[in-house]
Amino acid sequence: MLKKQFVIGNIIVIAMLLLMTCINGVVFANEKETIDRKLDFSTIDEFMSNQVERLNIQGASLAIVKGDHVEYLQGYGVSRPDGTEMTPQTPVVIGSVSKSFTALAIMQLVEQEKISLEDPVQSVIPWFHLADKEASKKITIQHLLNHTSGLSTNDGQVSISNGDTTVKEHIKDLANIKLTFPVGEQYQYSNLNYNILGAVIEEVTQTSYSDYINEYIFKPLEMVNTFTDPKEDINNTMAAGYQTVFGFKIRTEQLNHRGTVASGYIISSAEDMANYMIAQLNGGQFKGKNIISANAMSTIHHPSSLVSNDTYYAMGWEVNDVISHNGWTENAYSRVLLDGEYGISLLINSMDYFNLNEYETITSGINKLLHNEEPPLPTSNPFMKYIIFDLVLLGIIAYIVWSTYRIIKPKNEKVTILKGILIFVFHLLIPLLILIEFPKLFGPLSAVTLFAPGIGHLLFLIPLLLLIVGVVKLGKALLRYKINRI
User: Fold this and answer.
1) pTM
2) Hey, what CATH class is 41-370 in?
3) φ, ψ (nearest 5 deg) of residue 92
4) For residue 307, which phi and psi values (nearest 5 degrees)?
């Protein structure tokens, strides 16, 4: 029996390690040799269709621009359970691509000399306070734009599930938030930075964030299917959102994020994003109108904060060999890529947290095709992870059920110190460490369960159940040990 428990204990440890490895691991195929050929949009269409099918994407829309012209607009799959086709006009939540709109709005206000990049945030919104009052005074608008305020990624993720307030209320709720680095010292991507910028825009313009960007960005760029609130979708054309739950696509409803639109919840269409990309590629100009100067647009795109290796964060954009930004919410995904010549915008009305990098490679592959290069051909099965997850989790749950049954229907077993140690290690120590380190291993619980429902919940519940079973087993073992010694 002791040997059996030792084997089971090892299986649990290996299973949990396997889960952590699978969550963070991504398999990429090697690139084939570049093939010289003339650009053919049918090849891009075939590539997109294959990716939509391979990744079981419900619906996607693609926009490609070159210079100041729209080169390609196409929809794939469906936008709703009733079979409504996904089109370039179908609105989708664009996630963190919203940050580039917020940065653009801030730079418009800088050009109007209503604010300066060096202005402390408190000079614009005096009621802005964090836990460290002195550090709060040092944070400037530039720090927020470049993600160098000291606000953490973790706190920014937590804010996603706390966005059902007004912008002002949301920012006032940050009074107890602690900085994890001194102001200006370290890049840390945090949604909170851009939520605060949303409050700055409202305070300076004395209007809502939504009204401002609608008047000074959406309208000039003729973005007719772009808005900040699903309620503005009066024609009911917005795509339904889907999430992958244990490997199956399930339609889910999005939370209300009215207080965090500036960091991740603008809604747009591929056709509208084409207009937006034209302005980005042409120094702020669209159809002869300037929404911002070329110098200001250059400042927006200028690499400032080192993210990793050769990648820098600018203002609402990441910069390496291209300018890009992705965006993902609980049930939608987007990415915009600008390479100086072409602009690519991809919108997807589903989210697969464990295959996020597979989504990322779609726009990179299209960019290669635009430059007559062969994109890397994926060789991995994107849903093999779910098969592994499901089997491992099922095995651990079966063990927990078996252990519970053994507690309820115990047999006369010899109690030893070694058995107590095994229970302590596999049922108490390891589960307790996982629970304590959960945010570091997987992210804040609220975000994990929001973006990875099902598996995200079990990653928390399983160590909790193992811990409970362990406490009971260890207690009974100690009691039996004392009885045997009498």
Assistant:
1) 0.87
2) alpha beta
3) -140, 145
4) -90, -60
